[in-house]
Amino acid sequence: MMNERKSVVFNMNLKSAGIIVLLCLSAVAHAAVEQAEPDRVVVYKETPQGDLRLHIFYPEKLSSEKRPAIVFFFGGGWNSGSPSQFYGQSRHLAHRGMVAISAEYRIKKTHHTDPRACVMDAKSAMRWVRSHADELGIDPSRIAAGGGSAGGHLAAATATLSGLNEPDEDISISCKPQALVLFNPVIDSSENGYGYDRVKEYWQDFSPMHNLDKETPPTVFFLGTNDKLIPVETAQKYKRIMEENGGRCDLHLYPDQPHGFFNKAKYNETLGEMDRFLADLGWLDAPKQ
User: Fold this and answer.
1) Cβ-defined contacts of 82-86 (< 8 Å, 24+)
2) Separation of alpha carbons 79 and 254, rounded Å
């Protein structure tokens, strides 16, 4: 009887300890989002509305080996936002051995531009990173694009849209990533999707889902089932088209989660799935269990 009581107490302590560990991990994760700072900030593009910069996070250990990289684009409806939205994910991936970058781009609130300028800037950012691969210490054949909401749209746009390039830019340098990491992304710009009223004159050239093909890179897609902007059916359709084209789309649905959940309640979970996806591509070592 005494041994049974000890066993119960021990199991309860293990459960309590597990809960405490999870709470601590959550606190650490949110602290990472708030406290992470880039190792370097560089101008990648000069525009009439001002210079645009890349916020770069490097791995701690220097290596002669060329590393994979990822470029993140923040969300905000093409109207607002900040690169700091993806500082946490960037620092995490830098710790894991990637070069991680969070990009600025023109937004309506600050630069008084429309969504087309956002796509042009995203493509410019990807081209700058690829053309400076040696300087950055990265492998130009392993560059991912990621983002949340409208930033997820920009990441997907660099992989799928053939137009909306900056005039006079060297388009012989590819802006296409080799992988996509999308957090509740805007991927349907039709009248049934998000933002149609702002892009209706050119929506077919602006909508990633309507420009998918066999060359679209492997994708991980995160969405909350209570997202009022991006319906689950839209994500499922995107996945279906990708797979019909012979591509890969790992769709992760999070019950009852709203838009923007990935930097809040489910930060750790989405971070872990992102890690596993990139490890499965061979870009990272397998996550420790």
Assistant:
1) 83/53, 83/55, 84/55, 85/148, 85/151, 85/263, 86/146, 86/147, 86/148, 86/151
2) 26
- Copy the structure tokens of residue 169: 């830019």
**Tally of CB atoms within 10 A around 234:** 21
Find tokens 């107490």 and name the residue. Answer: 9
Two tokens, residue 287: 């996550």
Percent of the chain exceeding pLDDT 90 equals: 84
Q: Which of 55, 259, 278, 32 is nearest to 150 (CA)?
A: 259
Cα separation of 156 and 175, whole Å?
11
Residue type, 57: F
Half-sphere exposure of 250 (CA within 13 A, CB side): 15
pLDDT in tens, 192-229: 999 999 999 999 999 999 999 999 999 999 999 999 99
CA–CA gap between residue 136 and residue 230 (Å, rounded):
35
Residue 251 backbone dihedrals phi, psi, to 5 degrees: -100, 125
Residue pLDDT, tens place only, 5-63:
343 333 434 333 333 333 344 344 444 455 689 999 999 999 999 999 999 999 987 77
What is the pairing mode between strands 50-57 and 179-183?
Answer: unpaired
